[in-house]
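User: Fold this, then the next.

Assistant: Folding the first:
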Amino acid sequence: MARMELLRCKKMDMVLSLIITISLALPFTGSCSSHVYSRRSDFPEGFAFGSGASSYQWEGAADEDGRKPSIWDTFVHSRNLDNGDIACDGYHKYKEDVQLMVETGLDAFRFSISWSRLIPNGRGPVNPKGLYFYKSFIQQLVTHGIEPHVTLYHYDHPQALEDDYGGWLNRTIIKDFTAYADVCFREFGNHVKLWTTINEANIFTIGGYNDGITAPGRCSRNCMSGNSSTEPYIVGHNLLLAHASASRLYQQKYKDIQRGSVGFGLFAMGFSPSTTSKDDEIATQRARDFYFGWMLGPLVYGGYPYVMRRTIGSRLPDFSEEESELVKGSSDFVGITHYNAAIVTNIKPYFSGYSDFYSDTGITLTYPCNDSSTGLLLDTCDDTPWAMEGVLEYIKQSYDNSPVYILENGKSMKGDFQLQQKDTPRIDYLQAYIGAVLKAVRHERLLCMVIDGFVRVT
């Protein structure tokens, strides 16, 4: 089977993903059968299978046609890391890629727009060549019957905004992000009905401002600058406000005409306690509050979880009454990225003179991998499809039946020529996880409905 870019893109490994719409709610009343997933027709008519990519991992053409550096360009080049200067060369080969999508039988394709290609300085004039590229690409998708799902921000704001005022650390970015979103809604909204404002907001914040291992590379330890005690929470706060501002703009200016939806992205691991002790069970809920509730609490209920407010104190920004109302209910859906399970162990509080996101959680996480040195999501890690079921059920029960899109799911592997011939590990992984989603649809007493060409399970 042809695989879009997985064969020709060597440095930047695109993870095959699912784009599946799930909203968990009412008692089951449909006629979904109960046999295990074995073929595409097991899903209700209209269920969408897709793939995805981010602009920096896919486009390449880093300094062509008016594009200027993003924080990812600066991050990888300053550290002499593999980079996306060429990546999968999608900027030049997007028509070929769409043909591969057609051959693969994709219903949908999720991609992100490079803010620094469309508006190179982050604010001000739109780059006409960047605008032409995205319009042409979207038109190719639509012409071939593939539903475009657009992410506005995937870890990569223009470096100019980082230099001007510190990027997401400064509330000025809320206005600039809203203006950027306005351009996207206006120019692409006639063909795009599904928008995700921020991708994996929690992990972007932790990686970029707590650990310093992703752009912009800020942290308290082993980084040139940063404050892991405060910056993750400031950035997370501003991400939520920027999302809410863009969502309000869409509702007021475009919704009635374009009839689209605006959602927010979250990295969602399946948490389980390491023992049956009460301490580990409480710690597991604390993990969910910090990793999920950090963003979902404000989006659904208008405020941060109590355990975060109690633990973090004044380091956690407050929403004004007006901001709380703006953020609450601002997301039409939650877009989750899910790859793996995490085992939670409680740790006793101790004072080290140093606070960061991890010390605030009061937990340790371990992963079901045989060789932790190779990192997560490789062939050393166990497949844990039950974790997917748990995430969907938890969001259903805890966050007011919020509609959920599974935006990413997959298994990354080390490069191996044999995998190009028969990629059994990933086939098995996807088979198991797709089956887990189908099981959640059938066994969690959910109602199947088709809305806007995607299956929503309510």
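Now the next one, as you asked:
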Amino acid sequence: MKIKFTVEEDEGNNIKFLTNAEGNDVIRAPLFNKGTAFTQDEREEFQLNGLIPPHVLKIDQQIEKVHQRFLRIGTNLDLCKSCSQLDRNTYGLLKKNVDIARYNFLRDLQDRNEILFYAYSYRYLEEIIPIVYTPTVGDAVLRYSRDSARFRGIFISPSSINNANSIFDQFRFNHPNIAVVTDNQGILGLGDQGIGGMNIPIGKLALYVLGAGIRPWETMPISLDVGTDNIEDLEDPYYLGYKAGRLRGGGYVDFIDSFVNTIKEKYPNILIQWEDFSRQNAFSILDKYRFKVLSFNDDIQGTGSVALAGILNALRITGDELSDLKFVIYGAGAGGIGIARRIAACLESKHNFSNKKACNRIAVLDSKGLITEDKILPDYKKSFKLNKNVYCKWEVEDDTHINLLETINNFKPNVLIGTSGKYGHFDKNIIESMMKNCERPIIFPLSNPTLYSEAKPQDIYKYTKGNALVATGSPYDLFQYGNRAIRIGQGNNFFIFPGVGLGAIISQGEHICDSVFTEAAFTLSNLTSEKLLRKGSLYPLFDEIRNISAHIAFSTIKQISQEQGTPECSIEQIRSRMWKPGYQEMIKME
């Protein structure tokens, strides 16, 4: 007998799980397994008696058991924290080991009892997000081939691309609505990580479920494993990926074309979120397919949107207008150029700037210094080559390589954003130079994980005497500045992509228009409370994410409707579409 699992949902969003499986086959299915929460009737109907302990627990009891185990993993760390002899580096290493152990514990739970994983993570969201995603997921990526015991998602390589349609047939869910797709080349600040990059789509989709209530059975993580140029991986006998140098050129283009055509034919309405491609491929793929398939790139568009929201919140404190500011962005990858694009788009749409005028308010630096019009540049950087009239009279050592400090001293920006992945590069000189330009500089070291952050917020406060307005890309603990407790807001794309994804799925538009990401930034800014701003936080708390996602989904649907004529819907209708983690009714199929 072929085992079947399916999910039914009526117009009232009532969900039922149906299966013809019995006994251990039910227990082995992560989405259907309830562990000790199976009712007595379910144990009888699905032949589970004797396979699990007899006492029935409520899901709340299971959640608390999970939390106790989660905390026990860090018991030794808590003891070490109280030891005055322990230096910061040793404590940091111990914490990293605890965090990766907690990550593996939660991934194991997800692969055994998926509903309990989401119910637990949803209840303890603030604690769990840094474990299931950044910064801990970066370490999990590095250890994927060694640590992974069960595998989740779809793997497509050059040797299997021609069979992609039949691979999709084998996927555990029949009707995915969203796929997070990576080719593993631009993983966080880690670069090419080969097959290990699969942990990113898995983690990202967990955040879609937690943040916007997208159903787990509507998600599909996909690794386009086109090889790796990571020598360490290729020489590792335990490496699990496609063991060849990375596919490039025409072969790579054909591979992506074949993938897009196949998934579009198989799932005509699926939303694709491109994730962690190399900067060149990220832009070319986004631009090539954005009108061919419902899709967006979170590294480019989500990062730009969340950074703009933080800037808008800083302006609520200073009272300035966006049109009054000048910006320096240190790092010209997907995130840096994505932020530059979003600021320019906002200046154009909200302040009637021409594109040229908007771009000349933004100085972008890459590894070779300031991007200027006399340099040979890839297409995605060309919009932000600074006009020679802006920099021709600057006092610099070498006008072919203008560095960050020279740019700040001459361009006199109000805003400094880091997406370079260069730890500590915003040093005392850089930060004090920002103070010379304005009383309240806006400084965002956004690189993550923490190991790659351009500055620590405590240092920025110290060097600016508490006058800077700060947000970071990685989470930082509460710290004291004078007699104030400072909570630094995290400019995490988690505030943007779940709502955009949910809105795009509901709207069923042909594409996601660019204005979606500008309006998402304004929506997020408007939902950040004055109380948080007074405490130094330019972003909300994660526990507000469902409300934030509902409103961003609403603005997304509205923008797509205005451009494409798709139906609009109310906030209440959107909220009704958000799945709340909990066990579903199970029905035996014949």
